[in-house]
Amino acid sequence: MAVFFQRLLNVRRDELLPVLLSALLFFCILTARMLLRPAREALGMQRGIEAVRWLFIGTALATLLVNPLFGLLVSWLRRLAFIAVVYGFFALSLLAFYLVMVLAPGAIGVASGQVFYVWFSVFNLFSTMVFWALMADRFSLEQSKRFFGVIAVGGTCGAIAGPALASLLAAPLGTPALLLVSTGLLLAAIGLIRLLARFEPAGCGAAAAQRIGGSAWEGLRAVFRSRYLLGLAAYVIILAVIATFLYFTRLQMVAALGTELDYRTVVFARIDVATQVATLLMQLLLAGRLMQRFGVAATLALLPLTAACGFIGLALAGSLLVLVVFEAVFRAVQRALMRPARETLYTVVSREDKYKSKAFIDTFVYRGGDVLGAQLEGLLGRLGLGLAALTALVVPLALVWLALGIWLGRTQERLAEAGDMPPTTKRRPLP
Predict the structure, then answer these.
(1) Which of 328, 315, 334 lies closest to 387, judged by CA?
(2) Fewest 10 Å CB contacts: which of 275, 309, 316, 425?
(3) What pTM value is reported for the model?
(4) Are 285 and 413 in contact (CB under 8 A)?
(5) CB 238: neighbour CB atoms within 10 A?
(6) 327 in any annotated domain
């Protein structure tokens, strides 16, 4: 059986268990997240789509406030400790929300729903960012090309299991119980991280045990000192802008179907299921092999092409069915192909940048792109412009995005071959 999995996953005997543990860890994190996502979407729309745009701003501000705290944790604590603190904090937060829902149900309303929306959005970003930072730190560049697509399958299975569990448990146990299930999954994730730490490759255990040091804002400064990290930030901004365009297009089409909360939640959940199934199929059939054969640059270029073609299709035939197909393909390419490829870009930077600069890019920069995309989409709507105008904006933006992806992929390959890091990201000796 072990030999079968080694051949199927393209791993050596000593690599099999760490890869499977990593996939199971991602499964727990994504299941915990996706259990709650449909409710987040429905709660966020209670005051209309315009209110969601303001929630994006609130989320961006929240991530800006959280980033220096995260930077301090990275500087002061060893890797295992600060990862446990991050997931432990989110687990305790979920427990607090549960107690409010059970002990003070009268406090649940529109305002508290918006608080949950912002909290969930921050949780969404940091939980995934910390996981991939750990993966980029744990595995080499060569391993990342082979493994990250496989590991991402665990997350996709979790993203499918989350909505499925929500639909099974919500009615008999009640919505508050879902928060307890998510809490348990996050605690299980902490246990898996401790178990994964026992299988550190030779020479990595001592490095992982060291405190990274540096200041809380070092990640931000490193981004603006490095063309490579700045290019990564620009790639993420455009990703967030275009993903937000798609997100608000979906909200508007679902809003047109009716105002009933439960019905909207069901529609969102069905879209999520279709997306995750498409992602899983693409991961199983293409992910690892595509990156190994064509390289990171070509893989990063696929999502911009998908976005351009998808919005052109929406402009020509703007129906909910076309949207569902487009979103399923877009999210599948994003999660199955682009995300693992993007995470390999961090394998050629220092440990400090893997956690600090990555945290800044994947949270605040990403949410900044969300805010920009939401405001641009809202401006087009206020001007009475529809999907055609949005498509006219997306297509040239996607071309810039494509060029950035190719440049980042080629730069990474050059740095890997040279065995070097971008000058501004080289490790500094610990004090």
Answers:
(1) 315
(2) 316
(3) 0.74
(4) no
(5) 23
(6) yes
